[in-house]
Structure formats: structure tokens, C-alpha cells
Design brief:
With 308 residues, the chain is α/β, with parallel strands linked by helices. The chain has helices spanning 2-9, 13-21, 25-32, 38-50, 67-87, 109-126, 141-154, 169-177, 201-217, 229-241, 259-267, 283-292, 294-307, and strands spanning 54-59, 93-97, 131-133, 159-163, 182-186, 221-225, 250-254, 271-278. Strands 1-2-3-4-5-6-7-8 form an eight-stranded parallel barrel, surrounded by seven helices. Helix 11 links the parallel strand 7 and strand 8.
Length: 308
């Protein structure tokens, strides 16, 4: 399986330099990451919202090593919030954040990340939108969930992400489903050891359905992060059985993947949110998109070969 190899490469400085230097890389990256600055992304926001879609915006970046970098990441999100306010699109575009960008892994990082993300959540709330805390590797999750719980005391619509490939997630889902929180369910995109995570696709998919059923039957707001046609159909059936209306859950898919499906679901009356990343530190995000789906890797390989 190539997925684990690609995920390992996402942490390799040598591979980062090699892939970043390839002439074809940028035009392939643009498929998944449509800009580097807020100004680049504004036309994308306007285009997608005009088509009846909603967005969750992610300023890409990881591996923060200084408090100054964490502050800069916070400020990038505050700048995004200002632009959403100017465009009057706060209710159409929420934000997703990785706490690693806000200093979570530094000394005293839990408190630093909480302080930085609170500023973003406050600004988002002021313009009528929300923030979702992205899940990262399993070693960060206790901190992420604690920060999520703390933020929800003042901002109860703050969301979080859970990953079906982790053994712990079924218990996390039961706790979150009872709390009324907003929960995005994804399969997971980090290289995790067999001691904590399912390794086979069929096991991950089965866990996804079990967790999805828990979320649909619970009191929270499920956000289904998947491009899998089978899981989309199962979601619709479970929502029907749970008596949920179309505005009581939503689908989320990545920018650049199955774009026609985005429009189809929106046309059927579903809330369809496009996860749209931008920024200059794109490497880790891009490599995980390749690892998630063989078709993405084939697309990249064909492009590299055709331009070679």
C-alpha cells in the first residue's frame, strides 16, 4: 500500500525539497490549494457561494517551532475573518484550524494554543461564523478535546473533528453526540501505529458507519467528511431513519475532488461545505491528500510524467 509511504514522505525534509522543486508541482497543487493569500482565495469564495455551496477555510501550515510563528498563524486567521466580514460572507464560510499551528507542541503549548485559537473563535463569532478544530495525530487529541470543551463554554458552536481509523473514536463520538456540539467525521489522514488505529480500509469504513450512526442518533450536528459514494448514501439513509431534516447535518468535501458531486448534493437541498485550503506551507496538506486516495496519486504521477 502506497498510503503509508506517502504519509511518511509528508514528514521528510528531503522529499519536501524534491517535490517542491519539481516544475510541475505547483500546477498540480493548485488543484487542491487554489491560492496562497487571502486575496487569492476571495474569488474562490465568491464563486462557490454563488453556486449555493458553503465553505470551511483552512490556512495551511504545520510544524510550528516558535511562539512567534504561532502568533503569525493566529494573525493569518484574523486577517481572513476581516475579509469575510468585508464580503458579508461570514455565515457562508467557517474556518478550520490545526492547533499545531497555534503552538500546541511547544513548551506550555496547550495554554498557548488555547489563547491563540480563542482570539480566532471570538472574531469568527463576531461575524456570525464558526471555527472547527481539526484532528491531527493521536498524540495531540487529548489536548484538542480539552481546548474544544473549554471554548464551548463561551462559544458552544465550536466544532471538532473525529477520525474513524482510531480505536478511541467510538467512545469520543458517544460523548460528543450527547453534548449538542458540531462534529466532523473523517476517516483520518495521518500515519498511525497499529496499537491505536485500524490499518485496513474495510475496518476503517466499518468504524466510520458505526460512528456515523452514533452521531445521527445523538443530539449533535454531524458533518460528514467523505467523498465515498457508498458512505454518502448510507449517511442519507441513517439521517432519514433518525428523522433528521436536511439542515440538521451537512456534507463536507475537499476542494478539487468530486466537484460535480458538490453541486449535485447542494441542488438536492443538502448543506454542502467545501473544505478549501490556502497558503504557502502546503506540503504536508498536499501529501496527505495524495495518500488518502489512489486516484489523487495517479493524477499527480500522470502530471509529473507528462511534464517530465
Amino acid at each position: 500500500m502506497l498510503g503509508p509511504v506517502i504519509l511518511a514522505a509528508s514528514r521528510s525534509d528531503r522529499m519536501r525539497r524534491l517535490i517542491s522543486a519539481a516544475p510541475v508541482t505547483k500546477q498540480v497543487v493548485d488543484r487542491f490549494i487554489p491560492g496562497e493569500t487571502v486575496d487569492d482565495i476571495v474569488p474562490v469564495i465568491e464563486d462557490l457561494t454563488a453556486k449555493g455551496l458553503e465553505l470551511t477555510l483552512d490556512v495551511v501550515g504545520e510544524d510550528i517551532t516558535t511562539a512567534e510563528q504561532a502568533t503569525a498563524a493566529r494573525d493569518a486567521y484574523l486577517a481572513l475573518t476581516d475579509r469575510l466580514a468585508e464580503l458579508e460572507l461570514g455565515r457562508k464560510a467557517e474556518m478550520s484550524v490545526k492547533l499545531s499551528m497555534f503552538g500546541q507542541s511547544l513548551d506550555g503549548g496547550h495554554e498557548l494554543a488555547l489563547k491563540n485559537v480563542r482570539s480566532v473563535v471570538e472574531a469568527a463569532s463576531a461575524i456570525g461564523t464558526t471555527v472547527t478544530l481539526d484532528a491531527e495525530d493521536h498524540t495531540t487529541l487529548d489536548s484538542m478535546f480539552a481546548i474544544h470543551e473549554e471554548l464551548r463554554k463561551d462559544f458552544p458552536r465550536t466544532g471538532c473533528v473525529i477520525q474513524s481509523y482510531l480505536f478511541r473514536t467510538e467512545a469520543d463520538a458517544r460523548r460528543l453526540a450527547a453534548s449538542g456540539s458540531r462534529v466532523r467525521l473523517v476517516k483520518g489522514a495521518y500515519k498511525e501505529p497499529a496499537e491505536v488505529a485500524y490499518q485496513q480500509k474495510h475496518e476503517i469504513d466499518k468504524a466510520y458507519v458505526r460512528i456515523l450512526r452514533t452521531l445521527m442518533d445523538g443530539a449533535g450536528y454531524p458533518m460528514i467528511g467523505s467523498h465515498d459514494p457508498r458512505l454518502i448514501s448510507i449517511t442519507q439513509e441513517l439521517a432519514r431513519k433518525a428523522g433528521r431534516k436536511l439542515d440538521e447535518y451537512e456534507f463536507q468535501m475537499l476542494y478539487g475532488i468530486r466537484s460535480e458531486e458538490h453541486l449535485r448534493l447542494a441542488a438536492e437541498g443538502h448543506r454542502m461545505r467545501v473544505y478549501t485550503a490556502y497558503g504557502t506551507d502546503w506540503y504536508g496538506y498536499f501529501m496527505r491528500r495524495l495518500a488518502e486516495k489512489p486516484a489523487n496519486l495517479r493524477f499527480f504521477a500522470r502530471s509529473m510524467a507528462s511534464k517530465g
